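Methods — Computational structure assignment.
A single polypeptide chain was analysed. Its primary sequence is given first, followed by the predicted tertiary structure written as structure tokens.
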Amino acid sequence: MDAKAFPPTLDDESRVPLVEFPPQDLVEIIEELTPEKVAGLIDVTDLKADTQEPKIRKMVNWALDYGFYAICVNPVEVDLLPRLLKGSPVKESYVLDFPLGKSSIQSKSRQAAEIVETSRDLRGKGPGNVELDMVINVGRFKRDRNYTREEIEAVVQAAEGESVKVIIRSGELTEEEIVEVCQVAKEAGAHFVKNSTGMDALGATPEHIWLMREAVGPDIGVKAAGGIKDAMTVVRLIYAGAKEPELRNPLRFRIGTSSPLNILATMNWIRLNPQAWAEAKVIPCTICPHGQTAKQRREVREIYMKKCRLCPYRRYRKDKDF
């Protein structure tokens, strides 16, 4: 990963997907990450359409018992979540214009302001309790970078000091576009960039998380979301997005997951023998974005498939079903 040129170029045929992880680096991460530290990086998430109050209360109990950093839910829960979290350090996180990001700038701004106002009325004044995970309009970004800058700036302003995470839907972007949108988000005042809604063509892949971190540097956060269900997945994503120990804090790196308890349980398991887990081989194509193209638009899919064809690990794809 460190040897790769940045920013990447699609005509660089020597560049292959990020599919190898030095075992000793993974061991260092595993040994440092106690379950308590991992919990402090997690946004417990439930964005399903049929989520009801009992599940929200269960998530709150998990956060209070295990020390999860935030609870990420749909905006409608702002009438309940602040009441349940009042007096606790756990953050409220709400998705904004989810999952498509196709509302107008004015609509996103109004929704952000309404969420912040309601939360403060119920939980207390002042910034620090709310986080907004806004979805950009990917279609507009592809033809008008200034539009994306304006919509992020509008939400940041409406948030009145609360944290704003920008969901870029990386599975719909080329590598150059991932780099560019992350830089736009940083310049527009976002506090985090986030790869996916969890409902996109791709979930969290080390390659995209690495690109995002390289694009924004150490000054703002990177959040990985989508399909994260076990501790080794978390370790690989941390290697990609928070390799430096000083980045392994909730202001610089975050994990969004609906499987927080399984992550903690498997973290305890891999810490029993870090070396063995770090040396265990993973099928590269299962963690590589270039091999997961079925749901992508044709123009993006063709770019990804070119990378796949050039990859020396393509032998794994022969006669395998994964």
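Note: The first helix runs from residue 23 to 32.
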